[in-house]
Specification:
Residues 1-97 are annotated as: Disordered. Helices cover 64% and strands 1% of the residues. By secondary structure, the chain is mainly alpha-helical.
C-alpha cells in the first residue's frame, strides 16, 4: 500500500472520529430543576470574554501541520488521533487570560473533543456555584443581543417568519393546523417544565386538557377552538407566575387575535422560565453556599487535570508569581509562627489586588479569575473614596474646625462629590481625571462660600481659595502625596478587616469619617470574597507558601491549610 493510500485512509478514519465526537457533545436545555447545570451565567454586553471562557481558552490544530518549521509531516501511526492541542502564544495568553506565559510549547499531546467539552461544562458549573455562593443578589437575566447586530436581526427575521407562517396557515381554507400543533406542543412542554414535584394534580390536568391527539382530532373535524386553549394556558400561567407578571396576563386575556395572543404567551413563558430558575436559586442558595467550597475545590482540580493534558504549562503559574512577589515585598525574617507568616503573605497579596495595575503586573492569579470583575469594581470604589477623602482633607484644612464640625456641610458636599466622581473613575485617563477634579474644586469653592454665608463665617481670602483649588486639582496625579496617604489609610483599614480574628467594630481612619459607610461596605464585600477564596484554595496556597518560606515543614503545611480554611468562616 503506497503512502497516498495510507494518508487517504487516515483522513477517512479521522473524519469518522470527528463525527462520533460531535454526536457526543451535550445539548443545552432547561428542565426546570433546582440546579440546571446548563444555565449560563449572564454576561455583560461589553465583556469580550467571561471568566469561564478565560479558564477554558485553548487552541486546536491539525496534527499533520504541527512541526516547528511549518512543513507538513506524515502521521506517525495510522491510528493517530485527529486533534492536537498546542500552547497559545504569549500575546494570545494576555488577550484571553489563558493560564501561563509565552512558554515554548511541549510536544503535542492528544485529547478528545469530548474531554474538552466535559472540562468546559465543569468550569461552567463551578462558575454558577461560585456566583450563587458569593453574591447574595445574583440572579439569571435574559441577555439581549446589541441593537443593529447581526444576531438580533437574524433572530427578528426568524421569529417574524414563524409567526407569518402561522397566520398564513390559519387563514387557509380549509385551515392548516400544522404550525399551530407544533406551537401547542411546545407550549405544553414549557408549562410542564415549570411545575414543581408537588404539582402532581396540575400536571395531570395539563396532560388531559392539552391532549395533542384530541386537539388534532378537533382540528381535523374543524371544531378546534384556539381561544379556549389559549385562555386555559393563561389560567395555568396565572397560578404559576410571580405577581409581577399578573398585569401582562390580564393584557393577554383581553387579546382576541390568535397570532398576537400566542406570541405573547410564548414570550410570557420564556420570562416565567427565567423567574422559576431564579426561584430555584433562591431556594437552594443556603445549601449551595454550604457545599460550594467542597464543590469548587473538586471542579477546579478536575480543570487542572484536564489542562495538564492540553499543555505542560503550570495551571497555577500566575498564582505562584503573585504570592512570590508579595512574599518578597514584606519582611517575615523575624517571624517563626507559620500562621502569622501565612496571613501576612496572603493579606499583602489580596491588598495588591485593590491597587492592581493591568499594564504593569503579570497576568491575574488563576485562583481569583472568577472574582476578577468583582474585585475590579471594589478597586474602582477604593479609588473613588481615595479621591473624595483627599478632597475632604484639603477642604477641612482650608475651612478650618468651624466647617469640619458641620455634619450638614459634610453630607451635602459628599453627595455632590459622589455624583461628580464617577463609579468607574479608575477608567479615566489622566486628562479626564484632571478635568473632573477641576470641576470638583469649583464645586468645593461654591460649597464653602454658601456655608460661610449661611453660618455667618468670615469669607475666605482669595489666596487661600486659589491654593485650595490648586491642591484639589493636583489630586488627579497618581503620585500626589495627599492621595497616597489617603489610599494607604484605606488599605490599612481593609487590612485590619482581613486580619481581625473577631467581628468587633474597627475604627475608621482619620479624615475618612464622611465616607465611613462606603468604607465599611468595601471592607465587608472584600472580606466575603477573600474568605471564600482562602477556603477553596487553602491547599494550593499552603503548598505554595511552604515552597516559598525556608524551613517550613510538611506538618506546618497542613497546619497552614487548616488555618486558612477555619479563618474563612
Amino acid at each position: 500500500m503506497d503512502e497516498s493510500t495510507k494518508e487517504s485512509k487516515n483522513c477517512e478514519k479521522s473524519g469518522d472520529q470527528m463525527n462520533v465526537l460531535k454526536e457526543k457533545q451535550p445539548k443545552e436545555h432547561f428542565n426546570g430543576s433546582p440546579m440546571t447545570p446548563k444555565i449560563k451565567i449572564p454576561r455583560s454586553r461589553n465583556e469580550s470574554t467571561s471568566s469561564d471562557e478565560n479558564l477554558m481558552s485553548a487552541t486546536i490544530v491539525d496534527s499533520n501541520n504541527s512541526s516547528p518549521d511549518g512543513k507538513r509531516q506524515k502521521p506517525q501511526t495510522p491510528d493517530s488521533p485527529p486533534l492536537t492541542p498546542t500552547t497559545p502564544p504569549m500575546s494570545q495568553n494576555i488577550a484571553t487570560g489563558v493560564f501561563g506565559y509565552g512558554i515554548t510549547p511541549s510536544p503535542p499531546r492528544f485529547v478528545s473533543l469530548e474531554e474538552i467539552m466535559k472540562a468546559a461544562n465543569g468550569v461552567e458549573n463551578m462558575v454558577l456555584a461560585h456566583e450563587i455562593a458569593v453574591d447574595n443578589n445574583f440572579k439569571l437575566e435574559k441577555v439581549e443581543a446589541p441593537d443593529n447586530s447581526l444576531e438580533k436581526r437574524v433572530k427578528e427575521v426568524m421569529h417574524k417568519a414563524f409567526w407569518d407562517i402561522l397566520e398564513s396557515q390559519l387563514n387557509e381554507s380549509p385551515t392548516n393546523y400544522k404550525q399551530a400543533m407544533s406551537l401547542l406542543k411546545e407550549i405544553k412542554e414549557n408549562l410542564l417544565s415549570l411545575l414543581l414535584p408537588q404539582h402532581t394534580r396540575l400536571q395531570q390536568e395539563i396532560q388531559e386538557i392539552l391532549d395533542l391527539d384530541l386537539i388534532l382530532q378537533q382540528a381535523d373535524n374543524g371544531i378546534l377552538d384556539f381561544q379556549r386553549y389559549a385562555q386555559y394556558v393563561l389560567s395555568v400561567c396565572a397560578r404559576l407566575c410571580a405577581p409581577v407578571r399578573d398585569e401582562r396576563i390580564r393584557e393577554l386575556t383581553q387579546t382576541d387575535d390568535v397570532v398576537p395572543l400566542f406570541r405573547g404567551i410564548m414570550e410570557l413563558l420564556d420570562v416565567m422560565k427565567l423567574d422559576m430558575a431564579n426561584f430555584h436559586i433562591q431556594q437552594m442558595r443556603p445549601h449551595i453556599q454550604l457545599k460550594s467550597i467542597e464543590y469548587e475545590r473538586k471542579k477546579f482540580k478536575e480543570f487542572l487535570d484536564s489542562q495538564s493534558k492540553l499543555t505542560s504549562v503550570d495551571g497555577l503559574e500566575c498564582t505562584k508569581t503573585w504570592l512570590k512577589r508579595n512574599y518578597e515585598s514584606i519582611d517575615v525574617s523575624n517571624e517563626t509562627n507559620c500562621k502569622i507568616i501565612t496571613n501576612k503573605i496572603l493579606v499583602n497579596a489580596y491588598l495588591e489586588l485593590l491597587v492592581w495595575d493591568n499594564g504593569v503586573q503579570e497576568l491575574y492569579p488563576e485562583t481569583l479569575l472568577l472574582d476578577a470583575k468583582r474585585i475590579s469594581e471594589i478597586r474602582a470604589k477604593v479609588m473613588k473614596l481615595t479621591l473624595i477623602g483627599s478632597v475632604f482633607l484639603v477642604t477641612y484644612a482650608t475651612g478650618g474646625p468651624s466647617v469640619q464640625g458641620l455634619q450638614e456641610f459634610k453630607d451635602k458636599l459628599k453627595d455632590h462629590l459622589m455624583v461628580l466622581i464617577a463609579d468607574k473613575c479608575d477608567e479615566y485617563s489622566v486628562a479626564e481625571l484632571k478635568s473632573v477634579m477641576t470641576s470638583v474644586s469649583l464645586q468645593v469653592r461654591e460649597e464653602l462660600k454658601a456655608c460661610a454665608e449661611e453660618h455667618g463665617f468670615a469669607p475666605l481670602d482669595a489666596s487661600r481659595v486659589q491654593s485650595m483649588e490648586t491642591q484639589i486639582v493636583d489630586i488627579h496625579c497618581g503620585d500626589n502625596r495627599l492621595r497616597k496617604v489617603v489610599e494607604r489609610r484605606i488599605l490599612e483599614f481593609v487590612e485590619r478587616v482581613l486580619s481581625s480574628p473577631t467581628a468587633q467594630p474597627l475604627q475608621i481612619p482619620t479624615g475618612l469619617s464622611p465616607v465611613k459607610q462606603e468604607l465599611s461596605q468595601i471592607g465587608g464585600q472584600f472580606m466575603r470574597i477573600v474568605g471564600h477564596n482562602r477556603a477553596v484554595f487553602s491547599q494550593y496556597y499552603a503548598d505554595m507558601i511552604t515552597d516559598l518560606v525556608p524551613g517550613l515543614s510538611a506538618c506546618e503545611t497542613r497546619t497552614i491549610e487548616r488555618d486558612l480554611t477555619i479563618s474563612s468562616h
